[in-house]
Amino acid sequence: MASKTLLVLLVSMLFIEIKSNEVGFSAGMIHRDSPHSPYYDHSITRYERVTKAISRSFARHSYVASMLSAKSSASQTSFGTVLFSDQGEYLMRIVLGTPGVEILAIVDTGSTLIWTQCEPCNFCYRQIPKIFDPKASSSYKIVKCTNPRCQYAGNVRCGLFDLTCRYVYSYGDGSFTSGNLATDVLSFPSLSNGVHTSFPDVYFGCGTRNSGSFSPRGSGLVGLGNSSISLINQLNISKFSYCLPYIFSNVECTISFGSSAQINGPNVTSTSLFTRSSSNYPFYYLNFLGFTIGSTTITSPISANNSNGNIIIDSGTTLTYLPTDLVNRAVNILQSSITCPRATNVEASQGLELCYNTKNCHFSVPTIVANFGGGSIVLPSANTFLEIQRGVKCLTFVGTNNLYIWGNTAQMNFRIEYDLSQFVLKFQPSTCCGST
Question: What are the beta bridge partners of residue 357?
Fold first, then answer.
């Protein structure tokens, strides 16, 4: 395990139990680099944060590409999540157990397992928040390896004497989590009335051996990907939606589930949403057809796939990765339209396709329309060019020949609904929670 942006929930003492197919609920969301984020580093500049996000994006793209290109047998034993340890773009505070313990976890549409560090944690990374103690939760239950969900928890084996489902998740940077698959009450506080929305018997990894480059400020992961072990499938949720504010926006937005996730109103664009049946493919896919830049339409060399889609939509990847030929043609059109001087030194150092010095220049980008199967969306310049240094803006599209991802910068200030019952994804332009 993807943006990336934080999901922050406040703790309450009131609980209710509901069924996800009857009632919807929402959670708060801010960017991980917002000043409200516990991951916010006061010692670095905003431009250094952007550089780090770009670095995470390249690392994530490389890892996902390597995992998806591996033979299915190799993927089955090593594929747990596509994040690089704690370097997700979004975080969520959840409440686990009875009585509840607040947990700060990465949340990602390209990941599956829910997990947190657990006591006794004799071989664990340092964690500032309280570590979950299963013995203190009256609703905690160990899962046996005969349980059908055990097979979806990564690299699993049976406990030698008690037949418990033991899992290991390994990450691309050598980090890992290992422990027991278990169930407990998982709760989400309301944004409005302080009442918890609670779900009993949610499967999660109770990690007692965890090591690597995890941040001490975080304590696990929540997967929203396509798998029977993910949060979405466990709660029988047919829809979820989110609205990502622009990077560094000092606002709180929402991610919504169930009936609360429905997008209504004008300017809604719909396109087909695809999933793949194998547990090695937790991602959501779209059919991307190409761009219209100004009055020129350029078509993607990768044909639409009406069975599987041709591009991943991912909350955890900052940049958007597209066929090299398409990006090269887009760069040529943009170069002929943008009059500011190129920042070729930044392009080379960051591995980006097109950068401009904008300090003493009026930076104007022609209208860029992204064309998907079924509809098109207009991308504001903030979705296509990111200021990565003071006075330097760079294109957020990167050419590649091995894996195509519609990243979170291209999704910002759109409300996006995943309708998993109708296999439709919807875009609606929005000033997410008043961000600018």
Answer: 392
The SS3 assignment for 46 reads helix
CB 357 within 8 A of CB 341: yes
Q: Which of 262, 251, 270, 244 is nearest to 430 (CA)?
A: 244
The residues pairing with 17 across neighbouring beta strands, listed in sequence order, are 198
**Nearest CA among 311, 264, 225 for reference residue 426:** 264
- Cis preceding linkage at 99, omega within 30: yes
Identify the residue whose tokens are 């695809």. Answer: 274
Tokens of 91: 């975080």
DSSP secondary structure of 338-368: --SPB-HHHHHHHT-S-EEE-TTS------E
Lay out the sheet containing 414-419: strands in order across.
25-29, 253-257, 239-243, 414-419, 424-429, 269-272
**In b/e form, how buried is each residue of 301-315, taking b as 16+ CB within 10 angstroms?**
ebeeeeeebbbbbbb
Phi–psi pair at 218, nearest 5 degrees:
-110, 170
| Beta-strand pair 220-223/101-108 | parallel
Q: Render 123-144 in DSSP notation, one character per residue.
A: B----SSPPB-GGG-TT-EEPB
What pTM did the predictor assign? 0.84
Checking phi first, is residue 283 left (phi over 0); if not, alpha (psi -120 to 50) or beta?
beta
**Alpha-carbon dihedral 132, 38, 87, 4, rounded to 10 degrees:** 120
Q: pLDDT, tens digit, for every residue of 285-324? A: 999 999 999 999 999 999 888 888 999 998 888 899 999 9
Digit-coded pLDDT (tens) for 107-143 = 778 778 899 999 998 888 888 888 999 999 999 999 9
**∠ at Cα 365 (360, 369), nearest 5°?**
165
Dihedral class, residue 309 (left if φ above 0, else alpha if ψ from -120 to 50, else beta): left
Q: Which residues are catalytic?
A: 108, 314
Give Cα separations from 122 to 101, 119, 131, 379, 426 (angstroms).
20, 8, 12, 49, 45
Q: CA–CA separation, 277 vs 256, rounded Å? A: 25
Alpha helices in 70-185 (DSSP H): 72-78
Partner residues linked to 14 by β-bridges: 195
Q: Which residues pair with 269 in a beta bridge?
A: 427
Radius of gyration of the chain (CA): 21
Phi, psi (deg, nearest 5) at residue 328: -60, -40
Cα–Cα distance for residue pair 428/430, rounded to 1 Å: 6
